Amino acid sequence: MEKRVGDKAIEPVLEPFLKAKDLSIVECTSRPTKEAFQIRLIIHKESGVTIADCEEIHRFLLPRLAISLDRQDINLEVSSPGLNRIFKSSDEFAIFKNRDVKIYLETEKNWLEGKILETDDSSFVLKTKEGNRRIDYGAVHKARLEYTGG
Questions:
Q1: Any domain includes 6
Q2: Higher pLDDT residue, 43 or 7?
Q3: Alpha helices in 27-105 (DSSP H)
């Protein structure tokens, strides 16, 4: 699993405001469409992202992005990662530390279930029923959050 590559034109505008609100960027993508310049922003915070958080960020960022990017045709979507997000980069293991996940490794037949205990630049520790297990990001074929109802 690779590290996330940020949107270099957009993220510098976002990061100071998000950091002040204890929010982190999970994913930020942008692309031109026929009608507008589409920006999708997925954010996270430990206590959970609310609709009010998304609204506040949208209202604050849209005019600043319009100025920064010199565009008036921006369509900005702001959302939470969702309950069962599929990880798209190794950076998400640190973002979702202490959360339950399901991991499918290149070398195993079954999904591993557990909680992310710690992370570093090359691996993470997963607490499973069988005990703690250090896993290299390169061995992960697929990973996703596992909602446990609490």
A1: no
A2: 43
A3: 51-69, 91-95
